[in-house]
Amino acid sequence: MGKSNESNPIVRHHRIRIRKYAMTQKTTEIVALVGATGAIGKSVAAALHQKGQPYRAIGRSRTTLETTFGDNPLAELAVWDPDDEASIRKALRGVAVVVYMVGVPYTDFHLHPILMRRVLDAAIAEKVDRLLLVGTLYVFGRAQSTRVTENHPKAPHTFKGRKRKEQEELVLAAHTTGEIRTTVLRLPDFYGPGIERSLLSDLFAAVKQNRKAKLIGPIDRPHEFVFVPDVGPVVVKLLDTPSALGETWNLGGAGVTSQLQLARLAYGKPPRCVVAGKMMLRLLGLFDPFLREFVEMHYLLTDPLIVDDSALQRLLGPITKTPYSEGVRQSLAVAE
Q: Which residues does UniProt call coiled coil (predicted)?
């Protein structure tokens, strides 16, 4: 038998160089955050920063991007126009991964599949390797089981749920073509420090201002909330887990709670709340487009939809979930 190539110093030298090059390529891979200035985008950016991973923050406003990410040496800034195909392609040029977190007002939910299609087309054209969509539980409709797994029927009975389902289907269909690898992470309602678009946002402000909190009820039904800073690390782990691709994943909160229980934690005494039920929402909706559009999603407050994320935990290992008591404390600390 001849000598093994491993004993050849020249071969060993070149293999070491190849391994070092591969490691460098991996660590310098750029992740594009589409919708970076939103709550989840900031959480993912923080997790990437902690890892030392370069990323491209993509948003519509240069001023907002600079305010949010301008002092971070790992962040590239890119302004895009989601109505312009050339602008989308330019924003994604040269990146390996896309995390899609674009939000639209409740009044514009018809745009979700439209924008998703444009970004997918641009990502494929620019040879992006993989894309992760941060989605919602709207795709399930009403819960048909005590705990909702990824295999729960997708039977949305609302317009918003159907549009989110169309969005997911586009992402998963793109994976089957082999042109781009994709996955979906679904979240329940979320909360956290400085989060403005949450069922609990006014609760924290009300406690700091010593007034009654305006909540949408009923507030005593079981519910769960994801603490936003916990989401980023999960997204980053999924990006680094090839077996996650081509699948959908649920992420739950730190257990079952209720708005009432969290209000008690926030006030530290019997809470002071003004609760708007479905009928009140209809009346207020005559003057507030958001509340008018929220009426069809009111079932999420009356019919508990609690997710089972055991599949995600088997995939990634233990997931850090901030206890509600600590999440409330941190949210109150920055409330105004």
A: none
